[in-house]
Amino acid sequence: MEERFSLPPPPPPPPPQPYDPDSPKLQLPYVGPGTYVVQVPKDQVYRVPPPENARIAESYRVSPRKGKKRSCCCWCCVCLIFFIIILIILGAIIGGLFSAVLKPRSPIFSVQHFQLKNSSHPIYNITLKVKNPNPKVGIDYKEGGDVSLSLKKKEIASGDYPSFYQAHDDSKEFRLALKASKGTLPKEVDESMTSMKKKVHLTFKLTIQVPTQMNTWVLQSGTIIYDVTCQVKVDTLAKNTRVLSQECETKRQ
């Protein structure tokens, strides 16, 4: 018979040594400042993020700021549009009240004198009278008014309408100096100037377009443009020219 032998069990581990405060401590070597390269084994590098992730993260970080700026700009634009709409509505209300309460009337125009100054640059001197028929409303004639003179549907002279303020129930006379168009004078005008035996009558068309603004107290209208057309007949363009007849019509745009 075979004899079996068993190995004795391993001895138990030694008990832990008690902590001795007087025992010498573990001393670590001193490492000075500098640049060090830490090598990590490749099998421990689990994942390296691609460079696109950095750009995506940056875009997410910056986009909220741009959104705030855009929202502020949009809000400012909305407020500005809203303010302009309110101004337009208020202007329409005030203009409606002005017209409904005061009922302003258009100015009345008439030609007082007509004269042609013959020189190297002919000038038509026309004395115009304008009357404000409104008892409580003044008229402010703005800059930018145009005046033209025509003969047989052809413009022969032009000029500017003066700017001034006219009080209520007031009449004013002033002279318009219209410069003749380039070129020679029309044949009919030359005959009327030089004819000594008989007077050559001529009919001119005077056209005026002038922007105005009516006001009284604290109320003020918007810009009102008047179109004035006068048919003026004179006896001669020689000395002592007289206005034989005239017909003026004023329209409001």
Task: Describe the protein.
With 253 residues, the chain is an alpha+beta fold. The chain has 2 helices and 11 strands, in the order H-E-E-E-E-E-E-E-H-E-E-E-E. A hairpin with an 8-residue loop joins strand 10 and strand 11. It is elongated and about 165 Å long. It is found in: Membrane. Residues 127-215 form the Late embryogenesis abundant protein LEA-2 subgroup domain. It is a single-pass membrane protein.
In sequence order, what are the helices and strands, one letter per element?
HEEEEEEEHEEEE
Name the quaternary structure. Answer: single chain
Number of helices: 2
Helix proportion = 10-25%
The strand count comes to: 11
Structural category is: alpha+beta
Apparent shape: elongated
Our measurement of the CA-to-CA distance between the termini, rounded to an integer number of angstroms, reads 140 Å
**Radius of gyration from the alpha-carbon trace, in angstroms:** 49 Å
Instruction: Name the average pLDDT.
Output: 81
- Low-pLDDT stretches: none
Q: Main sheet, how many strands, which sense, barrel?
A: 11 strands, antiparallel
Q: Give the DSSP E fraction (strand runs of 2 or more residues).
A: 35-45%
Subcellular location: Membrane
GO cellular component, one term: plasma membrane
Organism: Crotalaria pallida
GO biological process, one term: defense response to other organism
